[in-house]
Prior knowledge:
Layout: E1 14-17, H1 31-38, E2 61-72, E3 75-83, E4 94-95, E5 98-100, H2 108-120, E6 127-132, E7 136-137, E8 142-151, E9 164-171, H3 172-175, E10 182-188, E11 191-202, E12 205-210, H4 211-225
Parallel strand pairs: 2-8
Antiparallel strand pairs: 1-10, 2-3, 2-5, 3-4, 3-9, 6-8, 7-8, 10-11, 11-12
Amino acid sequence: xxxxxxxQPQLAPVTGVDTHLxxxxxxxxxxxxxxxxxxxxxxxxxxxxxxxxLLAGRQPAGxxxxxxxVQRDAGLNLLLTRRTDHLRDHAGQISFPGGRVEPxxxxxxxxxxRETEEEIGLSRRYIEVVGQLPVYSTVTAFQVTPVVxxxxxxxxxxxxxxxxxxxxxxxxxxxxxxxxxRHHRVEFAGAERRFLSMPWQGGGRxxxxxxxxxxxxxxxxxxxxxx
Length: 227
């Protein structure tokens, strides 16, 4: 199955906003609660296991990303990146730090930590890995393992300016409120694509969080809001 690439997701029609779903309560957004929840994943299935059929000519490849939850005084913030515009895959998109699994990596956690250090200079001595979400399959043929981690403040970032245009933080409580989750639908040449977005306003500009990043965040929402 092949599908066209969405190059201007901001223009895709919004088909719904999930204002009917409850936000994750504050008690479930603490470091202790997230550690406990990630330690009890048996039998849990994500809402979004992937974003559908593969682009033509792509072979599946392993990848891992870090979902870094920075422990600020006001609560947990998610650290995200905006990729540079010249990259072959996901150019200009909002992403988690991470990338392709290399032969020397001893599993997805090693990949996520290595890629995070290479892309944004976040030292692993500030990072406490607390668990993994199920693999997410992207339309670009990556089998992505999201690695959830708590990050102590006090770090200094050093961005790889070839891959990363900027890094920024979004309050986890905002992301875990479905009133900010928008559904989109696109039709092209008889094919249909659907995706989520979570547009965040920060620092005087909008960061359009969408696609695989938004879907993995939605999976985290479902996990943290489960009874």
